[in-house]
Amino acid sequence: MSIESVDSLITETADRLFGELCTHEAIEAAEADGGAPEIWAAFAETGFPWISLPEDAGGSGGTLLDALEVLRLVGYHAAPIPAAETGVLGGWLLASAGLELPDGVVTVAPHGDLTIADDGTVSGTATMVPWGRSAERLAVIVGGQVASVPIAAATSTIQQTALSGEPRDTLVFENAAAEVGAAPPGVDTDTLRFRGALSRVAMMGGAIEKMSQLTVSYTNEREQFGRPVARFQAVQAHLVWAAQDAALARMAAESAGHAAHRGEARFEIAAAKLNCNQAATRSTKACHQAHGAMGMTQEYPLHHYSRRLWTWRTEYGGTREWSRWVGETAVSQGADRLYPLITGGSTALG
Amino acid sequence: MRFTPTELTPDELALQSDVRDFLAEELPPGTHEPGLGMSAAHDKAFSKKMAERGWVGMALPKEWGGSAKKAVDRFVVVEEMLRWGAPVGYHWVSDRQTGAVINKFGSDEQKERFLPKICAGELGFSIGMSEPDSGSDLASVTTRAERDDGGWIVNGTKIWTSNAHTNDWFICLLRTAPLEPDGNKREGLSQMLIDLKNTEGLELSPIPFLNGEHHFNEVSFHDVFVPDENVVGQPGMGWNQNTTEMAYERGGPDRWLSPFSTVEQLLRETQGTDLGDRAVELFGELTARWWGIRNLSLSVARLIDAGHAPSVESSLVKEMGTRYEIELIEKLVEFTDEELSLESESLFKRLLAQCVLTGPGNTIRGGTIEILRSVASKGLQGLPA
Questions:
Q1: What pLDDT does B250 receive?
Q2: Where in chain A are the domains?
Q3: For position B280, what pLDDT does the model report?
């Protein structure tokens, strides 16, 4: 069955934009500076950060599939910007609760002990906050409430960096004044975790594909023993394994995206994150091995993708967390329902 | 190379539901000894029942007894049969590839002679490709056919011919023109259909499997006469036809479902017990991986229906699927951590014992994973196959 596809204009525009802006030098500079305001400005100009958020809430309209396609290209080009946080995560939380979408960057707190007091103030510590230092607002969900906290209200900011070289900061708030709205049914910390995982698999699918392509090119150019190293069977094995993981990760991400676009998709997202985490582990190993020492240098771009994959594979649930989730689901379905679960996914869970 | 996500249509889902009902009725869990995917038992009566429902040779044209269905319809039927461990062995090769080859390259007379019987589940085929000195380098086959009045005289030896002792016919790759020094060994090959039961000069001898079971055979030709009407397609075009045939063999559910009945039985036997984190995580990993690989495999079937010849994609899926089967079997052995026997009281342990013993074949049959990597990596690099 042909399933809904993404407007090819979105793919072409985002691919061209990131292709022009996310040069090796620009990604290096973003890492050194802890952000890339000029790339973000050009990205924001297109309205892409707010795709899938309703227009009457200040979003750009479009579907979740469109937004995930942009995230795939963020991964493919290693775009050093908080696209997922501003759109399908933080922006989605704010728009769901009827809170205003700011013009600038929104981020979310994947971990921490933040609380929202009766007077609407926010206190506590948020850790590993993506691009915390350069965001305008932090979107927080606690119980049935969503708060939009100005980052400027943080009493202290500890700058930290993920393996990817991108900011993951610690922010401390003490009775920070915030805008607060009620979370509608179906919007809670659990939903945010699944959505976070969905955002990561979209980017991982793109990054593994790029890494696989880089590895094919490099091994065709690099010569040893008088011929391109890609002519050696031992090297070909790495090319094939990386291509398989690129295909598996993108297929898993897109299948989960389609399910989420339609409705209940927890099984697909969990299975996709698990597949992508494992694919990231295998493919980074294969691609680095095929590149030899060159892949370990700062001057060669492989690390833009491999380091992001090492970051994303543990964000919003590592391999054990999702193995347990999928395993508990499979076991609770029982032997007779195991294959129907594999073929039907969330629709088989009833 | 692009694997596009796809889903089953309402008609395909209805077919899936019919197949599940049929299996629940014919082979209720607990009443039959499931097989390991395509290595399942040969049961002519079961093949006949499937054929009565139109599920054998289903992609073949209606005029020859098929149902003119698509590759995805066949995918739906096959994945259910294999995961159930149903006894599909007798019609397996005819259904997967020989019928398709005869339909694509054969004469009308051959179609009339073979296809209705294949679709009726009444004709079991074997495959005569490998020889003592020709395995992965298949184009080097030396079994030769020489011109004679109205046909060919064949001499040579085929090996690893699975089930030649139980099947009815086999399709052989033979050299019909001598290989000149510096000649192209892919030229001068032809495919012929040979009756395994009624052919003078054909000698079958078993090659016992590592535990003594009889699957493989050596088939020797001593001046065997093959009439012209049994040559498939153009003499000399055998290599291209054979390559097409191999494409039907790759990337389908038979390449990743072999240990499924074993896993399902483990879940059945442990149901209601406290499994512990390790078992739960193992079930999670393999459920997710099967979901991912199945999506890739299904998209290959969709590509075939769209008229593509996805040889790189199907090689990638087969290499990945069979390697995963072996990884999974190893994990099950580690998890179980007990002595295994084909006579274990537990069905799960019997199946796992069989998985271990037959496992080495998974990554060899139908093209070793090394050959698949070679095919796939040439495709990735844009080189000719």
A1: 80
A2: 8-182, 189-349
A3: 96
Question: What is the pLDDT at residue B10?
Answer: 97
B112 and B133 fall within a common domain = no
Q: Which two tokens stand for residue A199?
A: 């955002």
CATH level 2 (architecture), domain A189-349: Up-down Bundle (1.20)
B-proximal residues of A, 276-315, CB under 8 Å: 278
Q: How many Å apart are CA B123 and CA B115, to the nearest integer?
A: 9
The pair of three-digit structure tokens given for residue A317, joined into one six-digit string: 């649930």
Domain that holds residue B185: 127-235
Mark yes or no for CB contact A216/B376 under 8 Å: no
Q: What CATH number did the domain enclosing B101 receive?
A: 1.10.540.10
Query: If you average pLDDT over residues A1-6, what whole number do you get?
Result: 68
Chain A residue whose CA is closest to B293:
A248
* B78, B37 contact by CB (below 8 A): no
Task: Find, in chain A, the residue whose alpha carbon is nearest to that of B13.
Answer: A344
Q: What angle do CA A315, A302, A14 make, to 5 degrees?
A: 70
CA angle B123/B124/B130 to nearest 5° reads 140
The answer to whether residues B198 and B267 belong to one domain is: no
Q: Residue B33's pLDDT is what?
A: 93
Q: Tell me what ipTM this predicted complex has.
A: 0.97
Q: Are residues B68 and B161 in the same domain?
A: no
Q: Do B267 and A250 touch (CB under 8 A)?
A: no
Convert B142-161 into a string of H (helix), E (strand) and C (coil).
CCEEEEECCEEEEEEEECCC
Assign residue B282 a region: left if phi > 0, alpha if psi is -120 to 50, beta otherwise?
A: alpha
Q: Which of B280, B291, B296 sits opposite A247 (nearest CB)?
A: B296
Please tell me the CATH code under which domain A8-182 is placed. 1.10.540.10
Q: What pLDDT shows up at residue A29?
A: 98
One-letter-per-residue 3-state SS of A299-317: CCCHHHHHHHHHHHCCCCC
Cα–Cα distance measured from residue B82 to residue B99, given in angstroms and rounded to the nearest whole number? 19
Residue B385: is its pLDDT beyond 80?
no
Neighbours of A34 (CB within 10 A): 16
Mean pLDDT, chain B, rounded, equals: 95
* pLDDT tens-digit map of B197-226: 999 999 999 999 999 999 999 999 999 999
Q: What are the backbone dihedrals phi and psi of residue A95, each rounded to the nearest 5 degrees, phi first?
A: -65, -35
Nearest to A262 by CA among A72, A2, A3, A75: A3
Q: What is the pLDDT of residues B277-325, one digit of tens each?
A: 999 999 999 999 999 999 999 999 999 899 888 889 999 999 999 999 9
Q: Rounded to the nearest 10 degrees, what angle do helices A302-312 and A64-76 cross at?
A: 130
Average of per-residue pLDDT across A245-262: 97
Contact B26, B323 (CB under 8 A): no
> CB under 8 Å to B254, separation ≥6 — which residues?
B37, B38, B78, B82, B96
pTM of this prediction? 0.96
Residue of B nearest to A319 (CA): B285
